Each structure stands twice: as structure tokens, then as C-alpha cells.
Amino acid sequence: MRINVYFDGFYPKFDFKNHPLSKFIEIATESEIRQVKSLNDDFQIRVSSNFGFGLKSVAQRKLHALARKLHLEQGSKPWLIYPQNSIQKNYLWIYWSGENLDYPIGPDIYLGFKENNPVKNHYYTPLWTWSLDWFNIPNNFNNFLGEPVLRDTVTGPRDTIFPDKFACAFFGHMNKDRKRLLHLMEQFGQVDVYGPAGSKRVETKNSLKGQYKYILCPENSISPGYVTEKILEAWSLDAVPVWWGDDKFKTLNDNAYFNLRENAELQMQKLASLDANTWCHIANQEIVRKIPDLNFLVPLIRDQLSKK
Question: Residue 113 class from Cβ within 10 Å (0-12 exposed, 13-18 middle, 19+ buried)?
Fold first, then answer.
């Protein structure tokens, strides 16, 4: 059997086959997903995100780029307005959030991290939970890492070796907070910056595994419970993450990383002074206290779909 699914608002080069949510949908419906391309096609499930808004025209993409730039640099949060199809809404609408932007009004299920929001059927599933190796998907949805983060490693201790290099960062873009934290860290040692916003290039992050003591991995912005894949990826490269974020719900082990949200300079002084034994003690701890079980999605999708 097949089920028609419409995906919109996702990032460039999005492939639904590399996203764990697609597999949960297939298990729940006991069907294989057939992706439809138009909002006016016949489909039973719609999955929306806030990475690209499903924008097609040059003018729309420029407007989205401006809104995203303002959000990243000034912290503004433009409301997302999603197009509706021309026929009656009789499909299951799932909203999957990865960015720190306000939720749209309309979906039946919200999968994200925001609290105190006005929507119903919201489930706390921060982006880092989706970057794990669900269903043995080869690259999950992050090809730059090279492979998904393994679930059976993040909750247990490990045995890493004290590296020679001080620190690095992976920046696709630069904003004022990243600049501030980068300049602060550079006062204590050399920080190699990879990606479009830096001077160094690398094919995959995993090729640098075990080379750096620290990886600077700030979130794009601060919001309660907003934890993306950045800190887990840094940890998976056998480094101590130097994070900037708000783990309000305490899903992470705060003994395994440094958080620059408060007393950033003091935190930098502390990490720069660590000897090999102390560094290894921190680096070899588990990064996650407990992995949320996403299997609740199967009965949830079945129940919501039966109401359509």
C-alpha cells in the first residue's frame, strides 16, 4: 500500500527518505510514502517545516531570506504563514520544527521544542533527538556530519584521548553572538573555523574526529529548551562541546560540556586551564541523560489520521 504525503517548508535538497519522521509515518499507516509535489494534489498527510516555507518565487525567497537574517541577527521572530490548498482540509497536518521561529496556526500535530505556546497537540521533540540513528538511516538528515549520532553512545561513558589542537567551530553563517563568542575563545587559543563563514573547508565533520579539545557550537539563538544537533555533533567528534544555549528541561548532562550563556569569560578561563586528566574526565562522560522515545508517534499518527 502507498500513502500520499505532501512535504513543504523544508531545507534545500530535502529527501524525505532520509528523515526519521517519514519512517514513523510509514509504520503508523502500514504504507509506503509516495511524495506528491503540489498542494492541490490528493494526499492524506501534510508535513510542514520552517526551514524554507515552501517558497517558490524569487520575491518570496528574498523576503524569507530577509526575515531569516533579521531573526538571526536581531532575534525577531516573524510569524509563519503557510499556503492552504484549494480544497477542503481533510488531511492530517504535521508540523515539524527545527528553527527557533513561531509556530503557524492550523496543524493537527506539533513536533518542536517551544513551551507556553497557544497550540494544542504539542510534543517536545528538540532537533537533537531527530539527529540520532533512528532506523539505521545512513545520513539521517545531516549529510555534513557524515553519519548520524549513535543512540547507544550518547548515554554511556567513552574513552577519548587528549587532542593536540585547541578548538574549532563549524559556521554556515556568522551573527553577532557567534562573533562575540568566537573572539572571546580566540583569546585563549587558536580556533579553526570551518564552513562558509570560515576560512577552512572539510568534506565531512567526522573527518576531524579526535583532533580538537573543544568545539565551539552555539545555538542560533537562546530560547528555553531550544537544543539542536550542534552540541551532540560536537561531542560525537570526541571533543568537549563549548555551547551557548538553554537546556531548560535538563535532557543533557551539564558535566559533559561548557555553557557560555552565563559568565562566558570565566567559563573560557576554566576550560583553557584544564590539564589532560581533567579534560578527559569531562570529555568521557555521557552527553545525554535520557533519550526521548519517539515511538509515541506511531499511535498518535494513527489516532489523528482516523479522525480525518
Answer: buried
What grid cell was written down for 46? Answer: 501534510
53 pLDDT above the threshold of 80: no
Residues contacting 126, CB < 8 A, separation 6+: 112, 113, 225, 226, 227, 228, 251
- pLDDT tens across 271-288, in order? 999 999 999 999 999 999
The residue with cell 499518527 is 301
Measured CA to CA in angstroms, residue 235 lies from 154, 173, 288 at distances of 8, 21, 10
Place of cell 481533510: 90
d(CA 231, CA 218): 8
Contact present, 147 and 35 (Cβ < 8 Å): no
Backbone angles phi, psi at 164, to 5 degrees: -85, -40
What's the pTM?
0.86
pLDDT at 147: 74
Q: Please, what is the end-to-end C-alpha distance for the chain in angstroms?
A: 19
> What one-character-per-residue DSSP string does 132-199 give?
B-GGG-SSTT-TTTSSPBPHHHHTS-------SEEEEEE-SS--HHHHHHHHHHHTTS-EEEESTTSS
For the chain, give the percent of residues with pLDDT over 70.
83
Distance separating alpha carbons of residues 68 and 80, to the nearest angstrom: 11
Q: Give all domains of the chain, ordered by start, each with its CATH number.
A: 2-125+292-306 (3.40.50), 151-283 (3.40.50.11660)
- pLDDT at position 137 is 74
CA gap 145, 8 in Å, rounded: 24
Residue 76 has pLDDT above 50, yes or no: no
Rounded to 10°, the helix 20-29/297-306 angle is 60
pLDDT digits (tens, 9 = 90+) for 255-265: 999 999 999 99
Q: Is residue 74 pLDDT above 50, yes or no?
A: no
Taking the C-alpha atoms of residue 78 and residue 70, their distance in angstroms, rounded to an integer, is 9
